[in-house]
Structures are given as structure tokens and as C-alpha cells.
Amino acid sequence: MVYRVIQWATGAMGKTCLRAVIDHPDLELAGLYVYSAKKNGLDAGEIARRPTTGITATQRIEDILAIDADVVLHCPLLQLPYSAHDEDVCRLLESGKNVISINNYFFPPALGDAHAARLQASCLAGGTTLAGTGINPGFIAERIAAVASGLCVELDFVTCREVYDCIEMPNANYVFGVMGMGSPPGKLDLKNGPLAQMFGAMYRQTVAHLAHLLGWTLDDIEADHATLLAPHDINARAGKIEAGTVAATTWQFHGIVQGKRVITHAVNWIMGSDLPGFESYNHWDIAIRGKPGIDIKMDLVEPVDASVKTRAAQYGVAGAVVNAIPQVVAAPPGLFNAPMPPTFRPHLAPPFSSP
Ligand SMILES: NC(=O)c1ccc[n+]([C@@H]2O[C@H](COP(=O)([O-])OP(=O)(O)OC[C@H]3O[C@@H](n4cnc5c(N)ncnc54)[C@H](OP(=O)(O)O)[C@@H]3O)[C@@H](O)[C@H]2O)c1
User: Fold this and answer.
1) Hey, which bits of 66-206 come out as E strands?
2) Could you tell me if the CB of 205 is within 6 A of ligand 1?
3) Same-domain pairing of 164 and 262
4) Which of 50, 104, 108, 155 has the fewest CB atoms in 10 Å of its CB?
5) How far is the CA of 131 from the centre of ligand 1 (A)?
6) Is 78 in the pocket of ligand 1 (CB under 6 A)?
7) Each residue of 42-88: pLDDT tens digit?
């Protein structure tokens, strides 16, 4: 079967998805949405550095809604508030197109029944499915940790830790505005500020989704965030991080059952790998404690060819997205439940035994 695909946004992630669609024999590019006026009207091939496709980029959602397609790959920049893209996504779903997002919709029930019901209603109105995927959120906890738990006869807790060096990220608005790097000490409100709310909404879905897959009912998800200040000026690609301003953030969440932390999900974004505490690391560490305990260390390997600008993380996100297309298109209308190999099956009451 050939799937007709609309690409929504062409940043680093979106362009990697766009190339994956153009290059794949089972995928046919059906439309292209862009935000930038400079890209409006260009052929998709020109944006993707590929031969002419005959598909022209548009800034009008109405053009996209009118296209007959199986799925929209929704890859815009994260916006404040986190719900900023909901209206567009609901319109896409109601127009009869499945949607796969890299920013949201990983596990909507985590953000409240009303939110999940609104998205579900749009799916049912259009006969469509809504999915969110990527590496983190989308894969590390929800796929790798969950699948590894299938080896366990008892499970006490699962910790997933990301460390990602953002020093080469080019987009200053994103690095300083959305990630909070370069903020003066104390300015980022790690409890109730807009970034805490946005990343909270994002990664609470990860924790709640993993708990759901493991059959655990969480009593609560606690946030426990931190920042690290630059010990010296840092010349990042997006601009200068002044000494004494934020040079690393830790967005950390704990899933709680009966007063115990049974899931910890920690996302460390750092500006350079010489910051104290981050001198050496894996991109992702998963620690499962139970019977048996399991440690998983995961890194992505950058392309060997130095002329290739696409980074491993961009390939990884694009892979998660395009590989999900057949399952998302085939799924019944509603919020997507990705098929999984067997995961840990909880005892009636979680044992949480000592190791
Ligand atoms: N799930 C995961 O594992 C994962 C991993 C990494 C990143 N992400 C997400 O991917 C997103 C995109 O990252 P990227 O590296 O592609 O960013 P980027 O290279 O900085 O690209 C910027 C993108 O933002 C679009 N844009 C411009 N104005 C916008 C607006 N007002 N609202 C929304 N989008 C706008 C641009 O559209 P055009 O250029 O097409 O005009 C472009 O596609 C990030 O926000 C992040 O949340 C997810």
C-alpha cells in the first residue's frame, strides 16, 4: 500500500521527515505546510534538497485540509502554551487525516479527561487516529523501558535519564526562549513558570504512559526540576551563554505509588559537555530494578560522512514517525494505542520488594 503523506513544517525534524517521505517507495508526498513566508510556494524538493516533487509548500491550513491524504506528520516548533497546536490538529483530524505529532499527543489522558475527550471527539468526527512519537518523548521510556520490563517477574522501579548537549542547536529563539538557557539565576520559575508547565505537560505524559503500560496506577506525579549555572561564558551556536546564567536544565518527574517513587524520568539538557556533573554520559540510561534488574545504555551514532548535516537525533525522530505510519493509519479512530510486545504484568498489589 502507498500512503499519501502531508508534511507539516520543515525545520530540522520536519525536513528529515520530508526527505524520508520523498525517499520511501511506499510513501507519496501529498502536501506540505510551512510557517516561513520564504518557503511558501516553493517545491518540496527544493526545501528538502531533492528533485522536484510537484508538491508546493503552503502557509494556508485550508489548502492542507482540502487535500486527500492518509496522514499528516506534524512537526512544528513547540510553542507556549503547550496547547498552541491543538486547534490545528483537531481541524486536521476532523478533515479525515490521521495525525502523527513529535511534540504532543503521546498519552493525552495524562493531561486530563476533558483534553483527551476533545481530541477523541475530533478523531471520531473525522474517522481518524491521533498519535505522538519521537525519541523522548515517544521511545525511550514508552518503548525501550516498557519492552525491557517484559523480562521481569517483579518490578520495583524504572528510571530513564536523558543527557543531551544542545550547544550546536542553531535556533536562538528555541534555545533561549523555549529551553530557558541563558536565563538569569532565579528567573526561571521551576514550579509554576511557563516552561515548567510546558515540559510538565510533555513529560507527565511519558511517566503516565509508562505506568499505564506497566499496569501501575500512579497516585501522583511529582516534579523535581533543577538548573545549573554556567561556570564561565559559553559560546553556543545559538549565541553566548553568560557566566552565571542557566547552562543546563533538569526536568525531572517521579511517578508515585503508595508513597514510593516507582518511575523517575529525568531530562537533562546541557550547553556543552564540560559542565560539572556532565563530563561523561550516555544519551540515555534506563535503570530497571526488580527481578531481574536491567541497565540499558543507549547512544545514537552520528553519520560518518561529514558532509551530511542531518544529526542522528533528527534521523531518529523521523524514523519513529515514518515507521509508525502503517499502524496509525490502520488503527481504529481515536487516540493511538501502539501495539506492544508483552511488558511486565503487575501482581494484583505491586510488590515493590527489596532487591
Ligand atoms: N519527540 C521527540 O523525541 C523530539 C525530539 C526533538 C525535538 N522534538 C520537537 O521537534 C520540534 C521541532 O524541532 P526542530 O529541530 O525541527 O526545530 P527547528 O529546526 O528550529 O525548526 C523550526 C520549525 O518551526 C516552524 N515554525 C516557525 N514558526 C512557527 C510557529 N509560529 N509555530 C510553530 N512552528 C513554527 C518552522 O516551520 P517552516 O520552517 O516549515 O516554515 C520549522 O519547521 C521541537 O519543538 C521539539 O519539541 C521532538
Assistant:
1) 71-74, 98-101, 129-132, 154-165
2) no
3) yes
4) 50
5) 17
6) yes
7) 999 999 999 999 999 999 999 999 999 999 999 999 988 999 999 99
